[in-house]
Amino acid sequence: MTHPRTLISGGVLEDGSTPQILVNSDGRIIEVSEREGDVSSENVEHVDLDGRLIIPSLVEPHAHLDKSLTADLVPNAKGDLMGAIHGWRDAEAAGVIGHEEMVARIRRSLEMLLASGVTAVRSHINVGGPVSTRYLVAAIEAAATFRQRMDIEFVALTYMPMSGEGSDINLAALSDAIELGVEVIGGCPHLEPDSDSCVSKVFELAERHQRKVDLHVDETLDPTALTINDVVRYSRDSGILTTASHCVSLGMLPVEQVQPLAESVAAAAVSIVALPQTNLFLQGRDDPVATPRGLTAIHALLAAGVNLVAGADNAQDPFNFVGRNDPFETAALMVMAGHMLPSEAFATISSNPRKALGIPEVSIEVGQPADLLAVRAGSTRQAIAEAPADRIVLKGGQVVARTSAMSEFPPVIT
Where residue 414 falls among pLDDT bands split at 50, 70, 90? Predict the structure, then answer.
């Protein structure tokens, strides 16, 4: 669909400048001016940002939309990982997880993400085992009405095992998922009986079908769990765009051990996704004092030049009871629990995940896509701290979501 040109004005950059931004019908910026009237306003649609901070739109690099918003539907009596797994399996067996309700939940989750300023999302969807491709079919149906508003891609989170005895049913479902158009191949090699064979199979299929790779890697506090080495080796040899999510065990290693490993990750151009919210919730429950945070080795990875990304993971489901589907919430946790500067944390929800997903960078410059977020804040630090609800979201220069908020303080009668 072709859109008219758009003139975006009234936004404020962090340096205090107030540019006028002209966006072509193809969604790219064709002119930027600091002075009102310098940009032609004939035959264009106008968008007034009314003094809001204007920044690149946000990215959610790791969601589980098939599970999202089930916290009240699927109980987790123990509140831990095994309680979540058993609760989910029981709900599936009881027929609680159905097609229509899943489509509705995924649509609601995408609405929440879009309203928060997300214009690109990657979601892992369970594939294989007893569900085959049913969840993926529901996700594709739910996403159809959002495709013009945001970029959406799905990862086939393949049931175990992916190699050896019992793998046939899962690999058949994965093959069907690829036929359905899933963009990324995933799995959990650290939980597999043969992690190397799992990683090998994933990269073999990704290369054959020209897909990307995003694996759940070493989501454990066990410092000996280092399947990241297998991922690095296969990624380096294949050249496939690769992401390793979680990598919790890296955070348990001494500096002298994690540094060379981080350098190998950087050399292989593997992006790593930290997932603070769910890992803070699930990890470290066996340590009632001096509890580990369950985060990856954030600063060692940054020092080595690794593309570090941050995502929400689970949101309001049995694996994480809370979560607003808002990357500012994730960034705030990266500041608090990961000891990052706000500017570093913002990069993990904006520019860095774009690189991980292989989508164009965004900046307010000629030739760049006009995927922007205008938020009622004076800086990205304030936006992360306060997460104001008042936001305008633009995709290709077109307003795709708008949220207004108002607080009232009536006089007190004494």
Answer: confident
Calculate the alpha carbon distances from 284 to 106, 256, 290 in Å.
30, 23, 9
Q: Is 328 a domain residue?
A: yes
* Predicted confidence (pLDDT) per residue in 204-223, tens digit: 999 999 999 999 999 999 99
In a domain, 408, yes or no: no
- Nearest alpha carbon to residue 56 among 352, 291, 387, 295: 352
Render 92-128 in DSSP notation, one character per residue.
HHTT-S-HHHHHHHHHHHHHHHHHHTEEEEEEEEEEB
State whether 141 and 243 are in the same domain.
Answer: yes
The number of domains in the chain is 2
Looking at residue 258, its amino acid is V
Query: 368 and 338 share a domain?
Result: no
Q: What is the CATH number of the domain that holds 34?
A: 2.30.40.10
Q: Span 139-144, mean pLDDT?
A: 99
Q: Which structural domain, as residue segments, surrounds residue 268?
A: 58-357
356 sits in which H/E element = helix 351-357
Q: Note whether 52 and 62 are same-domain residues.
A: no
For residues 299 and 385, state if they share a domain.
no
Distance CA 85, CA 79 (A): 10
Decide if pLDDT at 2 tops 60.
Answer: no
Sheet holding 372-375, edge to edge: 53-56, 372-375, 391-395, 398-403
**232 is written with which tokens?**
């690095």
Mean pLDDT of 34-44: 73
